[in-house]
Amino acid sequence: MTTTLSPRAPRRDALENREAIVRAASVVFRRDPEASLDAVAAEAGLSRRALYGHFSSRDELLAELLTRGGARISEALADVHHDDPRIHLALIGAAIWAEVQQVRVLAQLALHGPLEKTVASALSPVRASVRRATSAGVSAGYFRESVPVESLAQLIEDAAIGVLDVAVRTDLDEAAGRQLVMTVGLSVAGLSWREADALVASIPGSLLAAWSAPGSGAVVGSGAVAGSGAVAGSGSEGGRS
Amino acid sequence: MTTTLSPRAPRRDALENREAIVRAASVVFRRDPEASLDAVAAEAGLSRRALYGHFSSRDELLAELLTRGGARISEALADVHHDDPRIHLALIGAAIWAEVQQVRVLAQLALHGPLEKTVASALSPVRASVRRATSAGVSAGYFRESVPVESLAQLIEDAAIGVLDVAVRTDLDEAAGRQLVMTVGLSVAGLSWREADALVASIPGSLLAAWSAPGSGAVVGSGAVAGSGAVAGSGSEGGRS
DNA sequence: GATAACTTGCACAGCCATGTGCAAGTTAGT
DNA sequence: ACTAACTTGCACATGGCTGTGCAAGTTATC
């Protein structure tokens, strides 16, 4: 008695194609937030026309991306806490690193126009967490006090995105990338590199286990990312400059 | 005997209009590198058609912008040297801060596509200078050694752009902005915030005089930047679709 | 004040991207 | 195997931006 209502249930491959489209969009838009739907469809291995069978407009696709990205990130940050604001910040870095792909799509999309507000709300958990750690770290005398806290938090955020770019571009392995994101974040906050390195080294592996874990399920984007001739095709080296 | 060749010399206001266009382009493209020429013409107070009287294509206008920006920056960096790599890096920061507008236009344009190479070459003096200071600082044990020098230089560069954004956005005064750019650059390099602050404070004013100077001539873009109702006016939001 | 230089406004072509409709396929479920 | 679900390829309307031609203005310069 599956479904007596409709004459037939939706097909399973349709669902798969929908996923493929979202994944493709994630890959393509990370490189160019204004890419055409044709490009997305191509990356997904479908026709442009079929894409409209799943999303009735470009904006609807964007909305889906934003929603998913935001959810992934919130989830990842959900249980990141630590009494030492320095370690807290480092852990945020590690969590973010585990979600690079998502974060970078959001960051890219943020540059656009009308998405700003949506993206902002998607990233707000990160922002809040960073802000809390920053503020605590400044009070404790660890972080620089020569800048208003909001600006500092913003700087750390911006720097983090930059680091993600570099890390991805230079093809660091998981551990190295995570380490870089953590230490540079701390540096911008105000620590010297020796302090940052030492601090990060002192973090018990158990705290990082969640992300460094072997088969950390639910890795939506990873496949797409690996297969991304994307990064290679575009940037080559010019990158940001 | 001005010019016996042509029946009449070009008019002076034409030159002024050309300048206005370039300035407008600088303002508009800094916000949105893909803005239409209509937007540029409007910002310049001219018609789109008139614009084509000065630049035969969009690319020609871009080229002019790139060339000027590159020239300004090279010039600003020409006599930035110091034996202490930390101070060298800080001074680069100060020099860059004096050219924020230019740098930001270039950085924006860099995200585009076919411009990559041109932009890259325009910014190459900065890159080279940063790389030199970075490498020297690492050798001296001041900067972090846990990252390959090229990546570190890249990180510093990226961070600098981020700082410029924040600084401009939060409307810091000249001195504060310069200070921020210098210290955060040093932080990413690896110094603690106390070290960075102390170091920057120790830099004799004479070394900064060049930029902090009252009427440092040749400030091409400053007027345009100040007058930019740009940021406010444009966005509206409709944007794409 | 005559004349060339410059601007404007309009009309036009071309290109590219978005959405949509429809007829003909192909493929998954029952 | 039959049928509905899904995909494809095409055609089409719409809208934005570029680049150009031309006639009619305005303004600097001689």
Automatic annotation (TrEMBL), chains A, B:
Alphabetical keyword list: DNA-binding, Transcription, Transcription regulation
Residue ranges for the DNA-binding region feature of this UniProt entry: 36-55
InterPro entries listed in its UniProt record: Homeodomain-like_sf, HTH-type_TetR-like_transc_reg, HTH_TetR
Residue span(s) of domain HTH tetR-type: 15-73
Domain of life: Bacteria
Pfam families (UniProt xref): TetR_N (PF00440)
Gene3D superfamilies: Tetracycline Repressor, domain 2 (1.10.357.10)
Keyword Lyase: no
Protein name stated in the entry: TetR/AcrR family transcriptional regulator
